[in-house]
Every structure is written in structure tokens, then in C-alpha cells.
Description:
Elements: E1 10-13, H1 14-18, H2 21-40, H3 53-68, E2 72-79, E3 82-91, E4 100-108, H4 117-131, E5 136-142, H5 146-154, E6 158-169, E7 172-182
Parallel strand pairs: 4-5
Antiparallel strand pairs: 1-2, 2-3, 3-4, 5-7, 6-7
Helix pairs in contact: 2-3
Amino acid sequence: MASGVSSEPAILDAMGLAADPELEFRFTESAHRILADLVSGGAALGWVEPPSRDEVAELLGHVVSAVQAGDAALRAAYLDRRLVGLGYWLRYARPTHRPHADLEKIAVDAAVQGRGVGRVLTAALVADAREAGIEVLTLDTRGDNGHALHLYRSLGFTEYGRLPGFVAVGEHRYDKVFSMLDLRQQS
């Protein structure tokens, strides 16, 4: 490419991120920018209002601690050393549910949506879950997020439940869609 811009994202795990001090230093600020911009645009990421930098820092600190304990995976997508997406899963905390995890968040910068970043991030997190011995990976999606629902179905997730009109955003109501990927069925 004449511009020198890579078309394939580099996907780093938490260890790879920690191994690059420059990226690690900028990670929270870059993640905050992506999450706040997406929520400002109406994305369903668990906030009604854009999160503060401190909220994002606290969330990421929790995820990194869980990664260090073997109870989570974190992935970051970079294009030319610029964070363009992130995602993570957390193992269920209850002792009887330890083989299960919830894919908590996949967030891709609006500027690169549609270029496969979400697919690559999600596939990496599924592979991490399989390697960690996770048997069932679950997630929930707002019902109007057709692109995410299509992506998850294409990666083998199946819908196992739906709460009609559960999510309220102002005067609008959306379904909450629950999906799962049974990793026991795959090798």
C-alpha cells in the first residue's frame, strides 16, 4: 500500500501489551477514547453515558488482575501502533461455574468498523477461552445490534434466550439477546 498503513490488525494479548511499554502506557487512554466515542454514538457497551477515564481505568485494572489470576483474557487490536479495538472475557466467579466465561466486551473504533477487526478480536478471545479450558462462552447483545449478532452467529454462537424490551435507552426499548458457544463440542 502506498500509504504504508497495514490492513491487518496486530492482535496483542495482555502479555504482549505489557511487553511494549509505549503501547501499555497509552492503552487506558486509547481504550477510553474508543469506548467513550462509541457510547456517545449510541453503542451498547454497558453505559448509557460515555464512561469517564477513571471508570475505564478501573475496569481495565480489574480485567488485567483477572488475567494475571488466570480468570480472564484481554485482547487489543492495533493498526500501525494505534489501538482500534479491544475485547475481553471473564471467567464466572461461582465455583460451580468456573469452566464458563462471559465475553464481556468487544469494542472497535468506528473508523475501522467493517474491516474485520471485531471478527479477529472475537476469534482470538474464543481461542484463548478454549486454551484456558473454558467449556461454555456466553455473551449478551442488544437486539438492534445486527452486525454483532451476525458476527457471533458466524463464529458458532447460538442464541439461547431473549428478554424482549429489556434494555431502555431513553424512550427506546431493545431486546437483550443471550448467546453461547459450547467449546466442548469443538476441538
